[in-house]
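STRUCTURE:
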């Protein structure tokens, strides 16, 4: 499994681009893409400032999530729920609880992606992933402006939205949209190169409370296949 695809299920049963992210909820046929409002004069400041503040001020975060994955022609491919936590620098935990079950752990040095159904673990060195990764963006690399270009910002439905595109040629995703509510991430939407959309909505967000270090230590389950990483 490619390291940049830790958030995007490549078949039913794997996380979406992102780590997912993706991941989430709308009910009607016109979903998959958040309705764009025209940015006001202060929108660019509000959107980018919310992301800057999140990168600078949030040392840890825990939340539950709902995820939806949509095809390019607006077909719902997958729905799932789970929990995630992060602690900076570069520690990340993601548990997609509803089938297909998936666990993703970044321990500061490696990214472990465990597909429970396949009994397979993929190990990727974090320093090989680059900064243009949604998971590492959330995990707090202050050089995000080197890896992403801000193409749109606006305020809509009482949320501050910022749209990013990766600067790197050949990135696994074409755009990333984040919505903040009072500085906390509320929605994350990722569109890949095939126009598949992963959307995550976060709930029960807790910021800067202590997170158990053991959450970011991946213990290999017995009998699994391990791919890559020099484990």
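SEQUENCE:
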């Amino acid at each position: 499994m490619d390291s940049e695809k830790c958030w995007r299920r490549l078949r039913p049963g794997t996380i979406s681009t992102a780590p997912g992210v993706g991941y989430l909820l709308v009910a009607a046929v016109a979903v998959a893409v958040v309705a764009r409002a025209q940015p006001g004069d202060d929108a660019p400041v509000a959107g980018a400032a919310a992301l800057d503040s999140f990168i600078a001020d949030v040392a840890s975060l825990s939340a539950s999530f709902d995820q939806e994955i949509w095809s390019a022609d607006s077909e719902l491919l997958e729905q799932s729920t789970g929990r995630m936590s992060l602690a900076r620098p570069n520690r990340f935990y993601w548990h997609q609880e509803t089938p297909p079950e998936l666990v993703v752990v970044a321990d500061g040095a490696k990214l472990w992606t465990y597909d429970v159904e396949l009994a397979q673990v993929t190990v990727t060195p974090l320093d090989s992933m680059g900064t243009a990764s949604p998971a590492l963006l959330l995990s707090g690399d202050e050089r995000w402006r080197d890896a992403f270009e801000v193409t749109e910002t606006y305020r809509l439905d009482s949320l501050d939205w910022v749209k990013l595109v990766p600067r790197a040629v050949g990135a696994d995703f074409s755009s990333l949209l984040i919505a903040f509510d009072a500085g906390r991430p509320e929605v994350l939407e990722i569109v890949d190169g095939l126009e598949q959309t992963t959307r995550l909505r976060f709930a029960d967000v807790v910021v800067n409370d202590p997170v158990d270090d053991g959450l970011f230590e991946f213990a290999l389950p017995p009998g699994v296949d391990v791919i890559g990483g020099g484990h």
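REMARK: The radius of gyration is 16 Å.
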